[in-house]
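Run log, item B.
One chain of 336 residues. Sequence copied directly from the ordering sheet:
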Amino acid sequence: MPRSYVHLSLEDRRKIARWHDAKMPVLEIAHRLGRHRATIHRELKRNRFVDAELQDLSGYYALNAQSKSEARRAGLRKLIRHLELRSVVVDRLKTGWTPEQIAGRLRLDGSELQVSHETIYQFSYSKDGHAIDFWRHLPEHRRRRRGRGKRRAQAHRFADELSIKLRPEAVDGREEFGHWEGDLIQFRKELGPANVTSLVERVSRFTLLLKNADRKSKPVMEGIISGLCPLPFHARRSITFDRGFEFLAWPHLQASLGVAAWFCDPQAPWQKGTNENTNGRARRYLPRETDPMALTNHALVAICQRLNATPRKCLGYCTPAEVFREKLLAEPGTLP
């Protein structure tokens, strides 16, 4: 299988400059670098420095050759050549879409101009992207890529029969609509005890955000009851929580709505990964520095609408709202 082409590096160009100054034949330079002779001929021709006034200064210099090569490659970047496409990307990043969602939705819509998520990331972290602070539009607002840490959760005792390990396979495999995951989004302690309940439906990734005055379990459950009550039964079959004490009043939920409850293993919130992922998305609009007392229901509804109108790769780049409505209406006798 032929080797894929690798661009000459700065170190390669330093060797070419040194050997070229020593009058080494192009064929020998190519042999030492493991390159085709045409590659070396092209490099010496395209990246040669020419001074029209001082001919003695003309020649091949490694740093100059590297700069000229990088400038040419930057000019080929799609987001530099197509300003209209860059405008579309920036607008959707500002509304909270990720590069992967943008690329996937462009393919789904059959747009004439398309771009891969990797191209968006590479442009964001390139010199040209940094020159216009393009990285600020990315979901994490980071100048460089880096891994994300994991949350730790406190463990509390719940009955063994409520363990997530006993959750039906239809729920685990996302084969049945109406199974949710729930958690609390919390803020800095000095801002008070108020918080936000996040609920996400496992099949559609449809999200609900509900404000709580504190972490007391019964009021938290009453908020969940209020949020899910308007839905038909097939759209609210069960909820999976972690073992936070704010969920100890789950029997109140079950008695009011007939909703089954399942609980993750101790210190294993990753077992409700859909909700953890959703919390990460919601954090773009609800950072820890947010004053929870200033949050209004209207603001939370607006955030939900934005999250539910964002295409998801796992949904074939359909939106959670589109899939939720489709599943909701699939049950016979369900009204729009």
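Observations after the first pass:
- Strands lie at 179-185, 195-201, 207-212, 238-241, 260-263.
- DSSP finds 15 helices and five strands in the chain.
Flagged for discussion on Thursday.
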